[in-house]
Write a structure and sequence with these properties.
Order of helices and strands: EEEEEEEEEEE
Number of strands: 11
Structural class: mainly beta
Number of helices: 0
């Protein structure tokens, strides 16, 4: 089982990025997928989730700016981030669980990618 993120980078505040996460090895069994982020010195936090029937969920801090989507045919998860802010600077991780119900609890996701860094300058 593997999750590989891409699409991070260094951008100025107000800019946009689209993160991607390619899944392989277990895609037919994946239920919920999500994006989490971790800034230096802070705990990992969930920002967006999507279940197998494409129902999204967002953390309050990112509603209106982040859009999660999932392409089951191509085994890829996306996160479009608009209006980037310096406080969005963090390592962003893709995660998956086999249960269909989504969760914001880090420990409920057994599968993780290595992350892609997003850095936003003011």
């Amino acid at each position: 089982e593997q999750l590989v993120e891409s699409g991070g980078g260094s951008v100025q505040a107000g800019g946009s990025l689209r993160l991607s996460c390619a899944a392989s090895g277990f895609t037919e069994r994946i239920g919920c997928m999500g994006w989490f982020r971790q800034a230096p010195g802070r705990e990992r936090e969930g920002v967006a989730t999507v279940d197998r029937i494409m129902r999204p969920g967002y953390a309050d801090s990112v509603k209106g700016r982040f859009t999660i989507s999932r392409d089951n045919a191509n085994d890829t998860l996306y996160l479009k981030i608009n209006s980037l802010k310096p406080e969005d600077t963090a390592m962003h991780y893709c995660a998956a669980r086999l249960f269909s119900a989504c969760s914001w609890v880090v420990g409920n996701f057994p599968f993780w990618g290595r992350g892609t860094q997003v850095t936003v300058s003011s």
